[in-house]
Structure formats: C-alpha cells, structure tokens
Amino acid sequence: MERCKISDADALVRASRALRAGGLVALPTDTVYGVAAVAFDAVAVAALYAAKQRPLEKAIPILIADASGLEQVAIEVPALARRLAAAFWPGALTLVLRKHAALPEQVSAGPTLAVRVPAHAWLLQLLAAVGPLAVTSANLSGSPALHAAAAVGAQLGARLAMLVDAGALPGAPPSTIVDCMAQPPQILRQGAISSAAVHAACYPA
C-alpha cells in the first residue's frame, strides 16, 4: 500500500493513477475517511465490497464533481432533484435516482443509486480528474466509521492500493438522503440538512 499526505504536491496525481489502475484508495471526505473505486470499473467495485466485507445487497454511494455529472450516473433526473442539487451541492445531501445503465451491477443491484457532490476541495479535484467514484466509509462493514488515517491503514491497509492521509478528521453529521423517485420525495435518512430545508428547496414559495 502506498501512502501520501494530502498536502503532498503529487497526491492528486498518485491517487488518480491508483484509481485508474483499478486500485482502491482510502481518502478523506467531508464526513469521515472513505474508500473509493472508479464507479464504472466493475472489478474494482467488487474489490471494494470484498475489502469492507460489505453485503452485496447494500449499494455503494456515488460521488461526482458537480451536478453536471448527474447524466453520467443517472437517468430521468427529475426537475425537483435538480433544485435540490442546486440548493445543497456541494454538501451533505444524497439523492436517490434511477441508475444509468452504464454503471455496473456491482454498484447497485437495484434500479436506483445514491449520488452526492461532497464539500471537500481536494476530493472535488480528484473527482474532476478521474470521474464518478464509488465511495463508502473506510472501515469493515458494521464497524464504526474512522476519523484517523492510521486506523484506516490498520483495518483495511492490506486491501488498499493507496492511503491519502489528511490527519484526524473532525467528523460531521452524515448526509440527508432523499428518495427522488418517490412521489412526493421521501427523506430516507435525516442528516445534516433538515427536512424543512429539503421541503423549502423542493417547493419554493
């Protein structure tokens, strides 16, 4: 496993190279440490499940660089979902949308996917360079999320191509998850963004 600090001048290039080669990269997000694979690489996404010992029925969220990337990963994006994206991205809002056929079944065995634009400047640069990533928390499935790079290395290091060390992360509330396929949209998980704020963005006065 390679290691680098997020402050290293070549961190972005090295992480991009590892991901494009089909490797798993542990990295900081705006909440906790995550582990990432290229979303369109079925073999890499399968390795991500194996590394975390994650049940296959639990879909892996997709992170994109900005809302213009929605068409790469989702189809039939409702206008309401676009309003939510405009209001809260980058940020702690995850949208459930209909999955694009180009995404491998390993990302989500069902017809939908969860997608978000994170509020983390370095990660946004990586997403812009590499494209959509399948990203989930960098810990064994069922274990607590990790906020320290050393803990990530100890738990998952043998399965990683690279670990990007950003020091201790302060932690943040998880994202609010909104199912945009439901009519009306349904909040599946209450997180950092309140239900009142979601409703106001969906139905502006």
Features:
205 residues; eleven-stranded mixed sheet; 30% helix
How would you describe the overall organization of this protein?
The protein is an alpha/beta fold. It has 7 helices and 11 strands. The protein has helices at residues 11-20, 42-52, 70-73, 79-88, 121-130, 149-156, 195-202, and strands spanning 2-5, 25-28, 33-38, 62-63, 74-75, 93-99, 112-116, 133-137, 162-165, 176-179, 186-189. Strands 1, 2, 3, 4, 5, 6, 7, 8, 9, 10 and 11 form an 11-stranded mixed β-sheet that branches. Strand 10 and strand 11 form a beta hairpin. The longest helix is centred in the N-terminal third of the chain and has 11 residues, at 42-52.
Strand content: 15-25%
| Count of alpha/pi helices | 7
Number of strands: 11
Structural class by secondary-structure content: alpha/beta
Low-confidence segments, given as residue ranges, are none
Alpha-carbon distance between the two ends: 52 Å
**Inertia-based shape:** globular
Tell me, rounded to a whole number, the average pLDDT.
95
Helix content: 25-40%
Short précis:
The protein has 7 helices and 11 strands.
Mind sketching the topology for me?
Blueprint: E1 2-5, H1 11-20, E2 25-28, E3 33-38, H2 42-52, E4 62-63, H3 70-73, E5 74-75, H4 79-88, E6 93-99, E7 112-116, H5 121-130, E8 133-137, H6 149-156, E9 162-165, E10 176-179, E11 186-189, H7 195-202
Parallel strand pairs: 1-9, 2-9, 4-7, 6-10
Antiparallel strand pairs: 2-3, 3-8, 4-8, 5-6, 6-7, 10-11
Helix pairs in contact: 1-5
